[in-house]
Specification:
Strand content: under 5%
Shape: elongated
Radius of gyration: 25 Å
Structural class: mainly alpha
Order of helices and strands: HHHHH
Oligomer: single chain
Helix content: over 70%
Number of helices: 5
Length: 169
């Protein structure tokens, strides 16, 4: 388990930081998949034995937890600070496309820019990051693991009686 911690931390930090950067964070599920895959890749690169699908799931889950913690700790303050600027940018874009809907959208966005809204949003994103990081960890194993396990068949059982069995012809 200890050899999984470092790859999972690196993958989790990458997915967590990319998921809290405004505008870049709109691809948060993609970052979660890539973070899980990165954790699998780093684990495979340092592992002396071939990795299994279970290893990928564990790595993805660990990376997802790290990323989720980063999103909750950093995402809430960033969302509260940058939310109005992003909302104005979005409403301005919407006003250029459909002016009649822009004011209604602005009112809904302003109503959702509370501390409680930021906490709920961050928790939802954290759960999604966890799920998609597991998927990324599982995808990373077949993509990056090219080594094969022990493919030699086991030896036949030793003959205990020394002669033919009772059903020998």
């Amino acid at each position: 388990m200890n050899n999984k911690i470092k790859p999972a931390l690196i993958g989790g930090v990458v997915l967590g930081l990319l998921s809290v950067i405004p505008l870049v964070s709109s691809c948060c599920c993609l970052w979660a998949i890539l973070g899980g895959m990165l954790a699998s890749y780093l684990y495979i690169k340092s592992s002396p034995t071939p990795a299994a699908a279970g290893d990928g799931a564990i790595l993805g889950a660990l990376a997802g937890v790290v990323g989720a913690v980063i999103v909750v700790v950093l995402g809430i303050p960033i969302q509260l600070l940058m939310g109005p600027a992003i909302a104005n940018l979005f409403v301005g874009f919407l006003a250029s496309l459909e002016p009649s809907q822009a004011e209604m959208m602005r009112q809904q966005i302003v109503a959702g820019q509370t501390v409680a809204g930021a906490v709920v949003n961050s928790l939802i994103v954290a759960v999604l990051l966890f799920i998609f990081a597991i998927i990324g960890g599982l995808l990373g194993i077949p993509i990056f693991e090219k080594r094969k396990g022990n493919l030699t068949p086991p030896p036949p059982p030793a003959d205990a009686g020394g002669g033919p069995g009772p059903y020998a012809a």
